[in-house]
Amino acid sequence: MEKESEKSGTKRRYSRISSIIWAMKRLWKLDRSFVFFIFASVPTAVVLPLVTAYFPRVLLDHLGAGKTFSELAIISVGFLSAIGLLSLLKDFIESRCQARRYYPTAVYQSEMDAFENYRTDFENTEKQEFRKSSGYAQQDACTGNCAMEFVWGDLSQVLIHLFGIVTYASLLLTLNPVIFAVVTAVSAASYFLTRWQPKYYDKHKSNWEKEIRKRDYLQGLSDDFPSAKDIKLYGLSGWLEKMMRDYQNYILRWNKRCSLRGVLASVIAALLAVLQNGTAYLVLIAALLEGGLTVGEFVFYFSLVGEIARFLQGIIGDIAGLNTRADKIAYYRVFFDYPNRFNHGPGCALPAAPVAVEFRDVWYRYDGAKEDTLKGLSLTIREGEKLALVGMNGAGKTTLVKLLCGLYAPQRGEILVGGRRLEEYNIEEYYSLLSVVFQEIRTLAFTVFEFVASADLSRPAAREDAVLAMRKADIYEKVMSLPNGMDTHLMKGIYDDGVDFSGGELQKLVLARAIYKDGSLLILDEPTAALDPIAENNLYMKYQELTEGKTSVYISHRFASTRFCDRIVLLEDGVILESGSHDELMRQGGRYAQMFEVQSKYYRNEAVEKGGNL
After folding, report:
1. Which of 15, 189, 445, 481 maximizes the CB count within 10 A of its CB?
2. What are the C-alpha distances in Å from 386 to residues 32, 286, 377, 382, 576?
3. Residue 127 to residues 130, 204, 369, 371, 408: CA-CA distances in angstroms?
């Protein structure tokens, strides 16, 4: 039912005619030569079979009339030359079309990837509705034969079939209207047969769409090197293979149901073709026996029956095909028209550093969640302030940071940066204010230098600044020990000189990238989670230097690591429970003090066990 409502909503939003016109305009702008060759194919596609059918009629009639061999030879050479030239012209036009046909597909697929990865709100990519839209667009409008460039082929076929019907019907009606009526009835029946399988497919598509996404996810694990360790160590391969088989079998069962309807439709169509050809034979044989036709005319008119049937079934199939094509193109339009919450157009000027931040009654709930993660949160971060966010897992710390980063938009309330609402800035320009280190680290197959300097590789002193950033992040010596230094590639298996860093080294590397970017807002989400105690202490010692002239937000589960911040905010269940400096919060003796004592007690006990001093 969910799929049905979605599909009906799509059709109400975009009519089939408007979708076809939309596709035509885009393709015309993209490749006008392709459009020219598509329509140039119409005359040859109609005239060639007509000349081919007319040749045996003339030849047989001249044979019956007792013409000489030389006369028959001249007729044959003339017709064969005309057929040959038309065939060459037809092949040339088709080759031009074929050569250019898949260029639009490549362009559209690139546009979709760019839109999904770069031009739509990040939050959209995590929504089930957007993922469905993306999946339908990729499967039905790009990766199959429903891509928009095929619309021009469909329209050219409509013209070919219309031109052919008018031409051939005018010849056939002069002989016997019954034949034309039978052919027309059979062709009309073919329309419903043609629509039967696609309608069933669209009606039941939601039954396997989720299974396709699950299967594709499992396929992606085979290329995910970090996941390979867990799969091997925990013996997950058999379980994953079973899930893959189950998903694939489920998809295949539905594909089989669709295919069976296609086979049944083909059988019925074949029986109707027998009825059509049998009627034509009876009428033409009767006319021949009565002396109303010559042998040549009999052959010619029977060829016309086959051709006009092909044209009639073709035009009906074209209408069915265009209807299906338009529905698929609507998926493509829904994908591109998916609404953004943030501004991707011209925006106001960015504020000067350091910036102030204000959360005003911010509420946020994740897509599909039953409860809000943030509940009416209000918080002001002053210019140049070093703020620490602490709390238990699930308190809303990372969610708050992603809202500040413009990755999520609140359902209620607003966020102000530099005194302006976040939506007033161009979001891509706003990202330039941010230097962020997230908990999850995903490396890219760049050189170390390219990874660190990825925010601005064209900076005049890029390499010098990258060296300085790596020194501050305490990763420079490790990088220079590599065979090619900063020009060594990350990720083994991609490049011959590729290397894999340890978790702590990667954390230092992404910190160097954040330092290199030099954003006005420095956001560190658990930046020491993978660091050893010495490296962690070094970061604390350098934090004052790293945050100079910036507004910073520091997230950590280790309460002792936040003492160097100006203010500490304790989040619990999506609200601010306590706020103040470390000393203030300890004097209050509230939740922060209790949690700090629990952690410090653990470290004191550990020190005693090792014979050390606190």
Report:
1. 189
2. 57, 99, 19, 9, 17
3. 5, 22, 11, 16, 11
Q: Which two tokens mark 100?
A: 């250019």
User: Coil, strand, or helix at residue 289?
Assistant: helix
**What's phi and psi for 567, nearest 5 deg?**
-145, 145
Last residue of a domain, one of 305, 336, 367: 336
Residue 346 burial (C-beta neighbours within 10 Å; 0-12, 13-18, 19+): exposed
Region for 513 from its dihedrals, namely left if φ exceeds 0, alpha if ψ lies in -120 to 50, beta otherwise: alpha
> Residue 524: enclosing H or E segment and its boundaries?
strand 521-525
Residue 401: inside a domain: yes
Which CATH number does the domain housing residue 105 bear? 1.20.1560.10
Same domain flag for 396 and 312: no
Same domain, yes or no: 251 and 131: yes
Instruction: Tell me whether residue 350 is in a domain.
Output: no
| Domain assignment present for 56 | yes
pLDDT tens per residue across span 230-243: 776 667 777 778 88
| 600 and 492 share one domain | yes
Q: Number of structural domains, the chain?
A: 2
Long-range pairs, 240-246, Cβ under 8 A, ≥24: 243/214, 243/218, 244/215, 244/218, 244/219
- Beta carbons within 8 Å of 258's beta carbon, 6+ residues apart: 197, 200, 201, 204
Residues 297, 398 within the same domain: no
Please tell me whether residues 47 and 107 are part of one structural domain: yes
Q: What is the pLDDT of residues 260-288, one digit of tens each?
A: 777 777 777 777 777 767 777 777 777 77
Helix-helix angle 462-472:503-517, to 10 degrees: 130
Positions of the chain with pLDDT under 70? 1-12, 101, 140-149, 172, 174-176, 179, 187-188, 190-191, 194-197, 202, 205-208, 222-226, 228-229, 232-234, 276, 528-541, 560, 601-614
Closest CA to 53 of 201, 167, 220: 167
pLDDT in tens, 19-70: 888 888 888 887 787 778 878 888 888 888 878 877 887 887 787 777 888 8
The range of the structural domain enclosing residue 205 comes to 2-336
